[in-house]
Amino acid sequence: MFYMRSAFRLNTTQKELIMNAMLKPIAIVKVENGEPMTTTLQIALGLGIQHATVIKLVRTYMPDFQEFGRVRFKIQSFETNGGTQERKFVPLNEQQATFLMTLMRNSPRVIEFKKALVKAFFETREFIRSQDQSYNNIHNKLSLQLDLAKSDASLAGSVSGSYRKKRDLLMTAITEVERLMQPCLFD
Question: Highest taxon of the source (predicted)?
Answer without folding.
Answer: Bacteria
